[in-house]
Amino acid sequence: MDNNIKSIIDHFKFEILPVEGMFFKQTYRSSILNEEGAPLGTAMIGMYCHSPLSFSSFHKLTQDETWHFYFGDPLTLYLLHENGTMEEITMGSNFEKNELIQFTVPAGVWQAGCIKEGGQFSVFGCTLSPGFTSTCFEAGTKDLLINKFPQHKRIIEQLCVKGEETKIPEGY
Q1: Three-state secondary structure string covering the chain
Q2: How far apart, in Å, are the Cα atoms of 22 and each of 34, 58, 98, 168?
């Protein structure tokens, strides 16, 4: 493992998010709950890298998720829309290359993310309101997503969950 990546993992006390597969650390969870028992808001810091491998498997959420780019190399978000189109969003700090420092993924859109080819690492954040709970998350299996979006088979195979688990355990 690269010493720079190891120092970032150690500094932020990152762990691997079950099912989804990226390095993450929850940094905020509102103590105020909504009527359904979910926190009013949550925030996390995440990291993608090639070694050790860290990326977000295709998943969808029941609420909008706002992404924030912090530092490192650009990352790509892949969005699969119900009409069959795929959108690629590049997040990074170079606005002259149309990289975004903030982007909101709409609720119900299948999303996955990874570091751009040739990069070492990307550090980013995500915020949700209402906050993240295991019940707002559904991962997409390879069979489900290829059946629904056969034209995007290559990227689905690359960034789908490994196995059949589609729910994150309670407590995340």
Answers
A1: CCHHHHHHHHHHCCEECCCCCCEEEEEEECCCECCCCCECCEEEEEEEECCCCECEEEEEECCCEEEEEEEECCEEEEEECCCCCEEEEEECCCHHHCCECEEEECCCCEEEEEECCCCCEEEEEEEECCCCCHHHEEECCHHHHHHHCHHHHHHHHHHCCCCCCCCCCCCC
A2: 27, 12, 25, 13
Q: How many CB atoms lie within 10 A of CB 145?
A: 24
Which residues lie below 8 Å from residue 154, measured CB to CB, with a gap of 6+?
none
Amino acid at 133: T
Over residues 148-166, the pLDDT tens digits come to 999 999 999 999 988 788 9
pTM over 0.90? The answer is: yes
Place of tokens 């290359």: 97
Residue 163's identity, in one-letter code, is: G
Which pair of structure tokens corresponds to residue 97? Answer: 């290359």
Residue 28's CB is within 10 A of a number of other CB atoms, namely 12
Q: Which domains does the chain have, with CATH numbers?
A: 3-159 (2.60.120.10)
Residue with tokens 């909101």: 104
